[in-house]
Design brief:
mainly alpha
Protein backbone atom coordinates (compact mmCIF):
# COMPACT_ATOMS: atom_id res chain seq x y z
CA UNK A 1 0.00 0.00 0.00
CA UNK A 2 2.86 2.39 0.83
CA UNK A 3 4.33 1.99 -2.67
CA UNK A 4 0.91 2.57 -4.22
CA UNK A 5 0.46 5.79 -2.25
CA UNK A 6 3.96 6.91 -3.26
CA UNK A 7 3.28 6.12 -6.92
CA UNK A 8 0.07 8.18 -6.96
CA UNK A 9 1.61 11.02 -4.98
CA UNK A 10 4.73 11.01 -7.16
CA UNK A 11 2.72 11.26 -10.36
CA UNK A 12 0.61 14.11 -8.98
CA UNK A 13 3.49 15.95 -7.30
CA UNK A 14 5.69 15.84 -10.37
CA UNK A 15 2.87 16.61 -12.78
CA UNK A 16 1.24 19.50 -10.95
CA UNK A 17 3.45 20.54 -8.06
CA UNK A 18 3.51 19.55 -4.42
CA UNK A 19 1.53 22.51 -3.08
CA UNK A 20 -1.18 22.02 -5.71
CA UNK A 21 -1.89 18.46 -4.55
CA UNK A 22 -3.64 17.86 -1.27
CA UNK A 23 -3.57 14.76 0.86
CA UNK A 24 -7.33 14.28 0.32
CA UNK A 25 -6.79 14.08 -3.44
CA UNK A 26 -4.08 11.46 -3.01
CA UNK A 27 -6.32 9.46 -0.67
CA UNK A 28 -9.23 9.65 -3.14
CA UNK A 29 -7.11 8.72 -6.15
CA UNK A 30 -5.50 5.84 -4.27
CA UNK A 31 -8.89 4.61 -3.03
CA UNK A 32 -7.85 4.15 0.58
CA UNK A 33 -9.12 5.31 3.94
CA UNK A 34 -7.54 8.33 5.65
CA UNK A 35 -6.43 6.12 8.50
CA UNK A 36 -4.53 3.90 6.07
CA UNK A 37 -2.80 6.91 4.53
CA UNK A 38 -1.81 8.39 7.88
CA UNK A 39 -0.59 5.03 9.14
CA UNK A 40 2.02 5.11 6.36
CA UNK A 41 2.61 8.88 6.28
CA UNK A 42 1.87 10.79 9.50
CA UNK A 43 2.18 14.14 7.66
CA UNK A 44 2.41 15.58 4.17
CA UNK A 45 6.05 16.40 4.90
CA UNK A 46 6.70 12.69 5.55
CA UNK A 47 5.07 11.91 2.20
CA UNK A 48 7.12 14.54 0.37
CA UNK A 49 10.39 13.27 1.83
CA UNK A 50 9.44 9.66 1.04
CA UNK A 51 8.53 10.68 -2.52
CA UNK A 52 11.93 12.35 -2.94
CA UNK A 53 13.75 9.39 -1.39
CA UNK A 54 11.99 6.94 -3.73
CA UNK A 55 12.77 9.12 -6.73
CA UNK A 56 16.40 9.41 -5.60
CA UNK A 57 16.73 5.62 -5.34
CA UNK A 58 15.42 5.17 -8.91
CA UNK A 59 17.66 7.90 -10.30
CA UNK A 60 20.71 6.61 -8.45
CA UNK A 61 20.15 3.14 -9.88
CA UNK A 62 19.86 4.62 -13.38
CA UNK A 63 23.08 6.63 -12.85
CA UNK A 64 24.93 3.50 -11.76
CA UNK A 65 23.60 1.55 -14.75
CA UNK A 66 24.86 4.26 -17.09
CA UNK A 67 28.23 4.64 -15.36
CA UNK A 68 28.84 0.90 -15.18
CA UNK A 69 27.86 0.25 -18.79
CA UNK A 70 30.10 -1.51 -21.30
CA UNK A 71 32.48 1.46 -21.79
CA UNK A 72 36.07 0.87 -20.76
CA UNK A 73 37.50 4.40 -20.91
CA UNK A 74 36.71 6.63 -17.93
CA UNK A 75 35.68 9.48 -20.26
CA UNK A 76 33.12 7.21 -21.95
CA UNK A 77 31.68 6.22 -18.58
CA UNK A 78 31.12 9.89 -17.78
CA UNK A 79 29.58 10.47 -21.21
CA UNK A 80 27.28 7.47 -20.64
CA UNK A 81 25.87 9.39 -17.67
CA UNK A 82 25.12 12.27 -20.03
CA UNK A 83 23.46 9.81 -22.45
CA UNK A 84 21.17 8.80 -19.59
CA UNK A 85 20.45 12.45 -18.88
CA UNK A 86 19.63 13.03 -22.54
CA UNK A 87 17.12 10.16 -22.48
CA UNK A 88 15.46 11.55 -19.36
CA UNK A 89 15.19 15.05 -20.79
CA UNK A 90 13.47 13.71 -23.89
CA UNK A 91 10.83 11.76 -21.96
CA UNK A 92 7.23 12.89 -22.45
CA UNK A 93 6.02 14.87 -19.47
CA UNK A 94 9.48 16.01 -18.40
CA UNK A 95 9.03 19.12 -16.22
CA UNK A 96 12.44 19.61 -14.67
CA UNK A 97 14.25 18.40 -11.60
CA UNK A 98 11.83 17.10 -8.96
CA UNK A 99 14.33 17.97 -6.23
CA UNK A 100 14.75 21.57 -7.34
CA UNK A 101 10.98 21.91 -7.70
CA UNK A 102 10.45 20.48 -4.20
CA UNK A 103 12.96 22.91 -2.70
CA UNK A 104 11.36 25.79 -4.62
CA UNK A 105 8.02 24.90 -3.05
CA UNK A 106 9.12 23.64 0.38
CA UNK A 107 12.69 24.82 0.89
CA UNK A 108 11.68 26.02 4.34
CA UNK A 109 11.40 22.38 5.42
CA UNK A 110 14.89 21.14 6.38
CA UNK A 111 14.06 17.50 5.57
CA UNK A 112 13.00 18.42 2.02
CA UNK A 113 16.15 20.48 1.49
CA UNK A 114 18.28 17.64 2.88
CA UNK A 115 16.61 15.05 0.62
CA UNK A 116 17.50 17.20 -2.39
CA UNK A 117 21.04 17.78 -1.12
CA UNK A 118 21.61 14.03 -0.67
CA UNK A 119 20.70 13.36 -4.29
CA UNK A 120 22.78 16.21 -5.69
CA UNK A 121 25.79 15.11 -3.62
CA UNK A 122 25.33 11.56 -4.92
CA UNK A 123 25.52 12.86 -8.50
CA UNK A 124 28.59 14.97 -7.83
CA UNK A 125 30.32 12.20 -5.89
CA UNK A 126 29.42 9.65 -8.56
CA UNK A 127 30.96 11.80 -11.27
CA UNK A 128 33.98 12.43 -9.06
CA UNK A 129 34.45 8.67 -8.56
CA UNK A 130 34.44 8.14 -12.33
CA UNK A 131 37.05 10.86 -12.75
CA UNK A 132 39.23 10.20 -9.72
CA UNK A 133 42.73 9.06 -10.58
CA UNK A 134 42.51 10.40 -14.13
CA UNK A 135 42.73 14.17 -13.64
CA UNK A 136 44.61 16.40 -11.17
CA UNK A 137 41.49 17.92 -9.56
CA UNK A 138 38.62 15.43 -9.80
CA UNK A 139 36.29 17.34 -7.44
CA UNK A 140 36.71 20.55 -9.42
CA UNK A 141 35.96 18.77 -12.69
CA UNK A 142 32.96 16.97 -11.21
CA UNK A 143 31.55 20.32 -10.00
CA UNK A 144 31.98 21.71 -13.52
CA UNK A 145 30.23 18.68 -15.00
CA UNK A 146 27.42 19.12 -12.45
CA UNK A 147 26.85 22.68 -13.68
CA UNK A 148 26.52 21.37 -17.23
CA UNK A 149 24.21 18.56 -16.07
CA UNK A 150 22.01 20.88 -14.00
CA UNK A 151 21.94 23.51 -16.74
CA UNK A 152 20.65 20.96 -19.22
CA UNK A 153 17.82 20.01 -16.85
CA UNK A 154 16.82 23.64 -16.31
CA UNK A 155 16.95 24.36 -20.03
CA UNK A 156 14.91 21.26 -20.92
CA UNK A 157 12.13 22.36 -18.58
CA UNK A 158 11.74 25.62 -20.51
CA UNK A 159 13.20 25.00 -23.99
CA UNK A 160 13.11 21.26 -24.68
CA UNK A 161 13.16 21.86 -28.44
CA UNK A 162 16.78 23.06 -28.12
CA UNK A 163 17.85 19.48 -27.21
CA UNK A 164 19.89 20.54 -24.16
CA UNK A 165 20.90 16.97 -23.34
CA UNK A 166 22.77 16.71 -26.62
CA UNK A 167 24.51 20.03 -26.01
CA UNK A 168 25.33 19.08 -22.43
CA UNK A 169 27.00 15.88 -23.61
CA UNK A 170 29.00 17.85 -26.17
CA UNK A 171 30.12 20.35 -23.50
CA UNK A 172 31.04 17.50 -21.17
CA UNK A 173 33.08 15.81 -23.92
CA UNK A 174 34.96 19.06 -24.56
CA UNK A 175 35.63 19.53 -20.86
CA UNK A 176 36.84 15.93 -20.50
CA UNK A 177 39.13 16.26 -23.52
CA UNK A 178 40.83 19.30 -22.00
CA UNK A 179 41.10 17.80 -18.52
Amino acid sequence: MRERILAVAGELFYGRGIRAVGVDEIIAKTGIAKATFYRHFPSKEDLIVSYLDARRERLQAAFIDCAEGPATRWQDRVLNVFDGLMRNLRMPGFRGCAFVMAVAEHGDLPRVREAARVYKHFLRDGLCALIDGHVPEPLRLSEQLMLIYEGAIATAAIRPESDPGLHAKSCAATLLATA
